Amino acid sequence: MCSRMVKGEGPMFAEHVQDISNYADAHIHCEMPLPIGAYIGLPILIKDKELFGTLCAMDPSGQPPLTQKQKDLIITLARSLSTLQTIYAEAETQKRKAEKYRYEAETDALTKVFNRRGWHLALDDQEQATCRTAQNAMVVIIDLDDLKRVNDSRGHSAGDELLISVAATLKGELRQDDVIARLGGDEFGILASEVSIDSAKKLFDRLKAALNASGINASMGYALRLSHSTMSETIRAADQAMYLNKNQKQKTS
User: Fold this and answer.
1) Domain CATH for 148
2) With a threshold of 0.70, does the pTM exceed it?
3) Is 125 tagged catalytic?
4) Do 248 and 170 have their domain in common?
5) Which of 79, 124, 104, 125 is nearest to 180 (CA)?
6) Containing domain of residue 23, as a range?
7) Given the residues 186, 198, 205, 239, the one annotated as active site
């Protein structure tokens, strides 16, 4: 119901849910132990544009219409929450920048992106941010398919050039505060914070398209932090998705 309200497919104040078809057939009715007779839902935005969540209330019974004064009070509350969330988001951004400076020295000598130690520091900081603000994050694991072949056929200098090209290509698709690291050998990791399900999928597709456009063959997988209990589980899920992608390509080759 909240997702439909945000899309403008239903009103913010619904005194009788069953009278509104887009609310009456919502899947939530199958999940709730009690019926939903009345609903209030307002979006909570960050910086007046990015959806953070919703302020919502439900009642088992239909309700009489609210007065305009009552509606204005609820709208003011939602706007106040949006303002607070914007302040928290800005504070988190500044904190993340300061944290990034702290481990920026932890870089891979060849590719000039973070090394494994820098990667783990970034993951630890992100986990703390998630615990503070329920902030979602995306972990991408990338494994090159051709590094061994390039090293064997063209020499290690060509392999080094490939690794440098991969790092530069991936970095070109990332935001300033996103983290990219060489985890060792032919494996890279990416950590992108403050993402939604949709924006994570778009970023993943951009990364994949950029590598393909550069003629770089790689197996890739990603996972979202809030879809798992811990960051460790998130990394395992991204790793498993990468290996699934690799196995699928091997079966079709």
Assistant:
1) 3.30.70.270
2) no
3) no
4) yes
5) 104
6) 2-90
7) 186
